[in-house]
Amino acid sequence: AKNYGKNNYQIYSPQLNIRSFKQYHLESDLRKSIENNELVIYFQPRIEATTGKIVSAESLIRWMHPIWGEVSPKEFIPIAEENGYINELGDWILKHVCLHLKKWEKEQLPIVPISVNISAQRFLKSDWKSVILEILASTQVNPELIEFEITETTMIQHEKVTKAAFQTIREMGIKIALDDFGTGYSSLSYISDYPIDTLKIDQTFIKQITKSTKEEVIIKSLIYMAKGLDMNVVAEGVETIEQLNFLKQQECQEIQGYIFSKPVPEKTFIALLKKQIIK
Ligand code: C2E
Ligand code: CA
Ligand code: CA
Ligand code: CA
User: Fold this and answer.
1) What is the per-residue burial (b if ≥16 Cβ within 10 Å, else e) of 187-222?
2) What residues contact residue 64 under an 8 Å CB cut-off, 6+ apart?
3) CA 19 to centroid of ligand 2, rounded, Å
4) What is the atom index within ligand 1 of the atom nearest the CA of 263?
5) What is the pTM of this model?
6) What distances in angstroms separate CA 143 from CA 58, 116, 254, one per listed residue?
7) Residue of minimum CA distance from atom 11 in ligand 1
8) Would you list the DSSP string of the chain?
9) For every one of its 279 residues, what pLDDT tens digit does the chain have, with 9 covering 90 and above?
10) Beta strands 254-256 and 232-236: pairing type?
């Protein structure tokens, strides 16, 4: 750690220092994570509320670091977004989700659409479109099996770019979900201007079910609005039976959360799909 001078030890508490030490190493190691085969894609099922069937899944990246162990994407995605590595990382993830889909198709496994988290930052660099087209062409994946998840907040941050990008993505046949919905303070009329297929209600609202009538009212109106706009609604972070029952009552279409399954490795996900054991 030669870049950490004596001064750092005087300014920061020991704990903070360990954190910055880790941050520093993660940042430099991240660029080697692809070639070192340290990245793994996990899948978390999305369940149809009325039937209990897996109708889709979200892909979630995991970094198996040789020293730090499993590093959370909450920790390294922000680093990648800051140092610009997010584009290369995001392209790798999309490509590998497509490769998984193709492999499952070849093995004649039951396939469901997979959603992929995309940083809106990707659309700021003009090569994004050709990269996606190249991935679709080389893997021969049906674009209808892919949905991009873009957070409401970043959509608003890059308003002009995302609006045009969404249109292009739709034309490619890829679906669009608005992630962490309800946290970005966008108005309803504003949302209706964008070509959006799915609204994912943020976990913070779901956690308040049976605890706060205010949040329950917000959830009800989000579901009602999404239906009126002909969008699919997914509730994220559903953990309890009370939350599930409330969402069923409100006719929320899809449920994602620990109540059914955590994000799991490919093998486990395939086993779940085969059995459809999830109630
Ligand atoms: P997100 O897109 O909002 O993903 C949902 C997160 O909620 C996941 O955390 C998931 O494991 C977690 N989750 C799902 N159900 C429950 C539940 O019932 N209870 C609780 N407490 N948590 C639940 P994860 O996998 O740690 O990912 C965190 C964030 O990192 C994601 O939030 C997303 O913003 C980012 N991320 C993950 N994978 C990727 C990726 O491939 N690309 C990009 N750009 N970002 C990613
Ligand atoms: Ca997401
Ligand atoms: Ca989310
Ligand atoms: Ca989030």
Assistant:
1) eeeebeebebebbbbbbebbbbbeeeeebbeebeeb
2) 38, 39, 40, 70, 71
3) 26
4) 11
5) 0.93
6) 15, 12, 21
7) 263
8) -TT--HHHHHHS-HHHHHHHHHHHHHHHHHTTTTTTT-EEEEEEEEEETTT--EEEEEEEEEEEETTTEEEPHHHHHHHHHHHTTHHHHHHHHHHHHHHHHHHHHHTT-----EEEE--GGGGGSTTHHHHHHHHHHHHT--GGGEEEEEEHHHHHHTHHHHHHHHHHHHHHT-EEEEEEETSS---HHHHTTS---EEEE-HHHHTTTTT-HHHHHHHHHHHHHHHHTT-EEEEES--SHHHHHHHHHTT--EEESTTT---B-HHHHHHHHHHT---
9) 444 444 444 455 666 676 688 888 999 999 999 999 999 999 999 999 999 999 999 999 999 999 999 999 999 999 999 999 999 999 999 999 999 999 999 999 999 999 999 999 999 999 999 999 999 999 999 999 999 999 988 888 888 899 999 999 999 999 999 999 988 777 666 788 899 999 999 999 999 999 999 999 999 999 999 999 999 999 999 999 999 999 999 999 999 999 999 999 999 999 999 988 544
10) parallel
Q: Give the integer Cα–Cα distance in Å for 252 and 223.
A: 6
Q: Which residue's entry shows tokens 């943020």?
A: 202
Structure tokens at 12: 């920061």
* Ligand 1 close to Cβ of residue 61 (< 6 A): yes
Are 236 and 256 contacting, i.e. CB atoms less than 8 angstroms apart? yes
CB of 223 within 6 A of ligand 1: the answer is: no
Structure tokens at 66: 């040789």
For residues 80 and 33, give the distance between their C-alpha atoms in angstroms, rounded to a whole number: 12
